[in-house]
Amino acid sequence: MLKLYIGNKNYSSWSMRPWVLLKQADIAFEEVMVRFGKDAFADDSAFKQGVRTVSPAGRVPVLLDDGLAVWDTLAIAEYIAEKFPQKQLWPQQAHARARARSICAEMHSGFGALRSACPMNIEASLAQAGAQAWRDKPAVRTDVERLVAMWTELLDQHGGAGGSGGPQFLFGEFSIADAFFAPVCMRLTSYALPVPPHIADYVARVSQAPGVKAWIKEALAEKDFVAFDEPYRTAR
Questions:
Q1: In this model, does residue 226 exceed pLDDT 50?
Q2: Hey, is 63 helix, strand or coil?
Q3: Across all residues in the chain, what is the average pLDDT?
Q4: Under a CB-based contact definition with an 8 Å cutoff, are residues 153 and 106 in contact?
Q5: Cβ partners under 8 Å of residue 84, min gap 6
Q6: 13 found inside a domain
Q7: Domain that holds residue 58
């Protein structure tokens, strides 16, 4: 059976992507939680030591399959898609598939201002921190504007406007692309960042997808406090 090493569900946006993808596609896997704890990214931390038993990168997520370690979310997504081609995790049409890979790569390497100013924290209501970031950090607004433009184009093009019984997501059916942007949907919600109604509707649909909904439920049950992931407050 596949084994997926992840960090805290409330905070770990990188871990969320492959976990949601596997769960949404109904692919069996064993979860191994390696909690962040204090000073998680220090070289001698328990977290680093734990993850390095399976990956030299010392980061989550890591997918294990019969002794093979695959790390980095893009590599994991590609591996899963190749191992389970019947699940059709990428769009089937070549041009749509190329676009889906492009936006996943853009998410993987971009949107740094949004990620830095608004770390994922599913259980928290952080509208005040979101309003401050929106007011004081033009790059955050630029990132959100890019998301709105990207998602609007794809939802219009692929019929993901969420009509009754129709396709719901960026490329019609839920795909790797939606799994990659699920943590962004969590950020938009937690920080109450302003988006148009059709984008808010997409965020709501992603949040109600079974794989995402399961992650959210378990994130809310964690009740951990990881200080380095909450720069806007020191206690809870």
A1: yes
A2: strand
A3: 90
A4: no
A5: 25, 27
A6: yes
A7: 2-87
| pTM for the full predicted model | 0.90
Residues 144 and 171 in one domain: yes
Looking at the fold, whether 143 and 58 belong to one and the same domain comes out as no
Asked if 144 and 117 touch (Cβ cutoff 8 Å), the reply is no
Tell which wins on pLDDT, 91 or 49: 91
The per-residue pLDDT for range 181-197, each reduced to its tens digit, is 999 999 999 999 999 99
For residue 233, tell me if it sits in a domain. no
Residues 66 and 112 occupy one common structural domain: no
Q: Which stretches of the chain are DSSP H helices? A: 13-24, 46-51, 73-83, 94-109, 112-117, 127-136, 138-158, 176-190, 197-208, 210-222
Q: Quick one: tokens of 53?
A: 């038993």
CATH of the domain at 190: 1.20.1050.10
